[in-house]
Amino acid sequence: MNLRRTILQSIQSRAWLLLLSTAIILINTRTLGPEGQGQIAWIQLGLLLVTGASGFIAGGAVVYLKKVIPLRATLLPGHLWLVISSFGTTALGIQMGFLPKHHMFDIAVLGWLQGIIIFHGQLLLGAQNIRAHNRLQVMQNACVAGGLALVYFVWGWQHVDAFLAVLGISLVVTALLSIPPLRHLPQTDSQPPLKEVIRLLWKHGSAAQAGGLLQMLTNRTNFSLLARSTVNGASATGIYSVAFYALEAMWIVARGLAPVVHARTANNSDRNQRIRETRGMLGLAVLTTIPLACSAALIPDSWYAHIVGFGGIQPVVLRLLPAAIAGAMASILAHHLSGIGQHKWNAYSSGFGLFVLSLGAWQWIPTHGIHGAAYAASAAAVMQTTSLVFAWSYCEQSPWLSLWPRWSEIRSSVLRSEEIQ
Question: Using one digit for the tens of pLDDT, what is the confidence trace for 83-110?
Fold first, then answer.
């Protein structure tokens, strides 16, 4: 399959997911208003936190390790970890005041179900059953969208609990449908010791998942901060979440290109060609994101209010513009670094972004509310992307950093110390 066709199919898959996700958001906002949408966004933050922790063992590492560990051997430790991480992470998040206490059971169970779907999807990817993997993702969103329309508009049950019921049923159905394709996982006569399987999954899974978990927190910590604020509350979270979903929609091309960058980088030993291809993808991601971002920022707030049912969104979108461009670049650079096995730099940059976000939110949310959250998110995205540019240039020995002689000296010194070790 040629590069152009691969890119188009990847973007097409993202487009379907975006369309269904948008339908879910609009159904919720038009029915439950900003406060209901805010509560849902806060609960979904919990699900993302749970699935992020689940991925340390029951995640993408199974694809990388399929040549060392039979895929079937990962089923038992993966599912055991899903139960432990789902309830443990939820309890920890509530203990820290990060998640809503009255939805503890919902977050734990729904996060566990979502983790099963993600884990099975990664196993299917490892078995190169990409069609089944993509079908699971689309099916889940389609079930939620259809179920919400039925419950809200036909049965008249319009409450956050209705959303949770529909989401739970959709996750159960999707999780059950993800089981039959696992029958086609490769059979093996020998099974490595369980302890060794867990060790390898943790070793490789933690390196890759740490960056993803930190990135999720960087993107969505504002949901929790706004919801827990006595001045802002769930309504502010609802407005901000819609603006942030609009931001994520601007990344449709960048996120479609990202897995292509990952795959081609991982299978290309020619450093100069890797750099050229990533630069081309980087330029394409930025050039397609800019018009989308500008268009979203120029839409009058009255139009947003007509579409989603409440206003205040356009000013937040406007303040998220720097994050739109920076985030598109970060997606490409992070996947390039993952492709060459430099997961630690993604974790470092995401941790740096989370630090900047926390500092900015602490300063600006009390004084500027939702707009302060947007300022903090943009500052975090710009600083994170800047660190990724330096990491990418460092790891690939890119000539971009030759403009800073002192940096080149530092890099050479680090390389010499690594060689000695």
Answer: 999 999 999 999 988 888 889 999 999 9
List, for residues 264-322, the tens digit of each pLDDT value.
787 777 888 888 888 888 999 999 999 999 999 999 999 999 988 888 999 999 999 99
Region 330-350: mean pLDDT is: 86
Question: CB-based contacts of 78: which residues, under 8 Å, 6+ apart?
Answer: 57, 58, 62, 119, 201
Q: Is 417 exposed, middle or buried (0-12, 13-18, 19+ CB in 10 A)?
A: exposed
Residue-wise DSSP of 45-114 = HHHHHHHHHHTTTSSTHHHHTTTTS-GGGGHHHHHHHHHHHHHHHHHHHHHTT-S-GGGHHHHHHHHHHH
> What value, to the nearest 5°, has the Cα angle with vertex 284 and ends 282 and 289?
95
- Residue 287 structure tokens: 């050039």
pLDDT of residue 413: 53
Q: How many CB atoms lie within 10 A of CB 137?
A: 18
Q: How many residues does the chain have?
A: 421
- Maximum separation of any 2 CA atoms in the chain, in Å: 70
166: left (phi > 0), else alpha (psi -120 to 50), else beta?
alpha
Q: Is the pTM of this model over 0.70?
A: yes
Question: Which residues touch 241 (CB under 8 Å, ≥6 apart)?
Answer: 37, 38, 41, 223
Q: Do the beta carbons of residue 397 and residue 271 sit within 8 Å?
A: yes
